[in-house]
Amino acid sequence: MQIHKAQFRCSSQRTSQVPADALRDIAFIGRSNVGKSSLINMLTGHAGLAKVSGTPGKTRLINHFLIDDRWYLVDLPGYGYARASRSVRNEFSRLILDYVLRCEKMHFLYVLVDARLEPQRIDLDFFGLLGREGVPFGIVFTKIDKLSAAQLRRNLDRYRSTLLEQWEELPPIFCVSSADRRGREEILAHIEKCLTDCS
Ligand SMILES: Nc1nc2c(ncn2[C@@H]2O[C@H](COP(=O)(O)OP(=O)(O)OP(=O)(O)O)[C@@H](O)[C@H]2O)c(=O)[nH]1
Ligand SMILES: [Mg+2]
User: Fold this and answer.
1) Cα separation of 94 and 90, whole Å?
2) pLDDT band for position 94 (50/70/90)?
3) What is the DSSP letter of 39?
């Protein structure tokens, strides 16, 4: 799939404010600073579309980008930003959970994890929740340009074994770098499949 047109549509503070049309959302979520906004810019080929920052907690709202007048790519706030105050953290979690678990537009969720890190409790718990709630999701390992091929293989093996302690079947797994654009075609092909499978 190619993306020809990507337009910022709106930022929502709550699920009731998301676009009311019938177009489907493909959303990106993950811990703060994992590279959600960078990946959205890389996939769309628009460098400044989603705001990227070295400071965690940059994306605070549900951002909808209309793609080729056909579907929405959604940038969500990061979870688990330890330095945010408790009330801000709670507000983020409420916003995220309400959207992810209850919004009918939400069609497929890519959960991003930093390929350099060992499996983090907060991500594993989140996968568990998605599984229990029946939310369709995939895992995207980010920033793979910061690892050698051998390190990446080792980290992926470790991650898969951890997941297999709890899951009988693994969700779709992708590896990307927004720096060198690796993984772009695979994700775009998967999005296309998600959009056509259930149309
Ligand atoms: N080397 C490298 N750096 C990356 C990659 N993706 C993101 N970064 C850097 O990581 C930092 C965070 O990127 P963002 O895209 O803003 O992360 P985010 O997940 O949207 O962050 P929040 O909105 O704060 O939750 C920025 O400094 C990016 O330049 C990547 O694939 N490779
Ligand atoms: Mg962001």
Assistant:
1) 6
2) confident
3) H
| Distance, CA of 181 to CA of 187 (rounded, Å) | 11
- Is residue 123 within 8 Å of residue 31, measured between CB atoms? yes
Enumerate the H helices of 36-120 as residue ranges.
36-44, 86-102
Ligand 2 center to 149 CA (angstroms): 26
- Residue whose CA is at the smallest distance from ligand 1 atom 8: 35
Cα–Cα distances in Å, from 64 out to 61, 127, 131?
A: 10, 23, 24
CA 64 to ligand 2 centroid distance, Å: 12
Distance 168 CA to ligand 1 centre (A): 31
In this structure, what DSSP letter does residue 183 have?
T
Ligand nearest, relative to CA of residue 47: 1
Model-level pTM greater than 0.90? yes
Pocket test for ligand 1, best of 93, 142, 178, 184 (most atoms within 8 A of CB): 178
Q: How far is it, in rounded angstroms, from Cα 167 to Cα 17?
A: 34
According to DSSP, the β-strands at 71-75 and 173-175 are: unpaired
Q: What are the pLDDT digits (tens) for 24-56?
A: 999 999 998 899 999 999 999 998 898 887 776
> Atom 23, ligand 1: which residue's CA is nearest?
59
Strand partners, 29: 111
